[in-house]
Known about the structure:
The protein has 9 helices and 15 strands. With 294 residues, it is α/β, with parallel strands linked by helices. The protein has 2 domains: 3-92, Alpha-Beta Plaits (2-Layer Sandwich); 96-291, 3-Layer(aba) Sandwich (Rossmann fold). The strands form 3 sheets. Strands 8, 9, 10, 11, 12, 13, 14 and 15 form an 8-stranded mixed β-sheet that branches. The protein has a 4-stranded antiparallel β-sheet with strand order 2-3-1-4, with helices on one face. It has a 3-stranded mixed β-sheet with strand order 5-6-7. A hairpin with a 2-residue loop joins strand 14 (279-281) and strand 15 (284-291).
Amino acid sequence: MAWLQLRINATAEHAESIGTMLSANGAQAVTFVDAKDTPVYEPKPGETMLWPDTQVVGLFDASDDMPSIIARLAQSKLLGNNFTHKLDPLEDKDWEREWMDNFHPMQFGERLWICPSWREVPDPGAVNVMLDPGLAFGTGTHPTTSLCLRWLDGLSLTGKQVVDFGCGSGILALAALKLGAGHVTGIDIDPQALQASQENARRNDVADRLSVYLPDDQPSLQADVVMANILSGPLLELQDVITAYCKPGGKLVLSGILAEQVARIEAAYARDFDLDTSAIDGDWARVSGVRKLA
């Protein structure tokens, strides 16, 4: 079966009402997507948290009469005649198989390869990280992750203590361990991310050098290297927490940053770090530096 996706830009105030309208007009599923770079934190009991700029996505059968549906939506007071929307075809596929078929081994820098666990490694003599992301974020295909991986490949990590703040699938933690780090502490708000990190660590025979924690359980420590590939909002809000993990003279790398947000991140972290020239990859950026000694 083929499908159609109807995307409508909304505010948090109106997103749920628009979602209800889509369901009433035949949408098989409705999802809410962050339309901008804005984190959403744990809701209170009974509370639904949405982003200030939210995209409401309705999934429709391709045989549905979409012109009539859009016309009915346009008659509502909430949307009006000129509401912004986009209609895209979505072919029905085995999406997991499609993704697996298109996830190939990738090289980062001179030594490091990220390899799907179901494929042969192209260079057995390289530093190979075998990865099965599961439900957690992080495969190396996104510029934010690849920027950090290339940075890691250029470091001497032998015996170093590392913190991976927002570890996701564990890809950065595993890369650091395979590049010689003595121990990595992974921290994430998502228990599934911690599980994925541990499973990937076992797959790479480095589980004895990885510890993972939820934020409320995170230990007090100072590491030689701190990595935080999250978003600019949390990087700013949690600046003191992230900085505290990095010992004086230690190295820091930050990503999940849009190129247009670099100046603000640099201005904040320059308080405690001597910053390198930031790296840009398309719309995304990496900020790195060394913590000041005093």
